[in-house]
Amino acid sequence: MFVLKRIQDLSITLSGLENNLGQENPKCFLIRHKLAHAYRALEKFEQAINLFQFNLEAKIKVLGQDHYETINSQSSLANCYYASGEFPLAIQLFIKALDARTKILGPFHPDTLRSIGSLANSYRATGQSTEADKLHLRVLNLRQIILGANHPRTVASLKHIENVLESMGPN
Which CATH number is 86-171 given? Predict the structure, then answer.
C-alpha cells in the first residue's frame, strides 16, 4: 500500500513539474527516476521501463551522452530490463554503460566495477557462463587490488564466485 501511495504522490509531483517546467527539465529527472523505481518494485516493468527510457533520452538531450547522470540512467534501465527477464536488452545496455563508465570514470571506479558485475550476472542469466566467470574474476581481482582482500565488496565478490562454484557441483 505504501508503494501505491508513493506512486500517486510522485505522479502528481512529476505532472506538476512537467507542466510548469517542461518534461526535459532536470528537476523532473529525480522524480521520474523515483517513480520508475516504485513501478519496478511492484513489478510493473512496462511502466518502469518507459519512465527509465524517457529519462535516459531526456538526459542525453539535456546533459549529453557522456554525463555521469546519463550513464546512471542507462544503468537503471539495464537493471530494469534484467529484473523483467529481458536479458539481451540488459546486456546491450550494460555493455554501453560499462564502456561509458570506463571512459569517463576509469577502469577502477566502483561504478565501473559494479557495471562489470551486472554484465556478468546478465551473461550468466543467458547461459554464457564462461563470459560471466571471466567478468566476475575480473571484478574480484580489481577489488582485491583497489580495496584490499578484507573490504566488504571484495569479500562479497569472493563469496559470489564461491556460490557459483558450489552451484556447479563436484567436477
Answer: 1.25.40.10
